[in-house]
Amino acid sequence: MGARKKIAAEKRKEALKTQYFAKLQNVPSSPRKMRYVVDMIRGMEVNRALGTLKFSSKAASADVEKLLRSAIANWEQKNDRKAEDGELFVTKIYVDCGATLKRMRPAPQGRGYRIRKRSNHVTLFVGTKTND
After folding, report:
1. Is residue 6 one of the residues assigned to a domain?
2. Tens-place pLDDT, residues 76-114
3. Quick check: is 96 in a domain?
4. Exposed e or buried b per residue across 10-38, where buried means at least 16 C-beta atoms within 10 angstroms of its C-beta
5. Of 10, 12, 16, whose CA–CA distance to 1 is shortest?
6. Closest Cα partner for 86 from 41, 36, 45, 118?
7. Residue 119 belongs to domain spanning
8. In a domain, 10, yes or no
9. Residue 4 falls within a domain, yes or no?
10. pTM surpassing 0.90?
11. CA 68 – CA 76 distance, rounded (Å)
12. Which of 38, 99, 91 lies closest to 63, judged by CA?
């Protein structure tokens, strides 16, 4: 690795030490379905976001709720204290496409229809409002 790349990599690594996040990879649902759930909680206070996810009828909300709890635990671990009400917010959250499994379904007259089984990766950042 060149010196310039190594310096850039070290900077990224140092920046991640001050950010509090959790990742969920290879979730077997389409990114579009996951983005509906993610858009509901973007920018919310974490306790309110947990309530929203708990009572959401979307199947993907259970995965995002578990991820949010993990991000909160990461924040508490790095700060050595419990999160208080109204302190933590979902600062950034985004969904990326994961691997797509390609399958064939039998169709009439010897043909085959293509089925794409999509997956996604979710990344969730939490932080305080003063820390943005």
Report:
1. no
2. 999 888 888 888 999 999 999 999 999 999 999 999 999
3. yes
4. eeeeeeeeeebbbebeebebbbeebbebb
5. 10
6. 45
7. 18-131
8. no
9. no
10. no
11. 12
12. 38
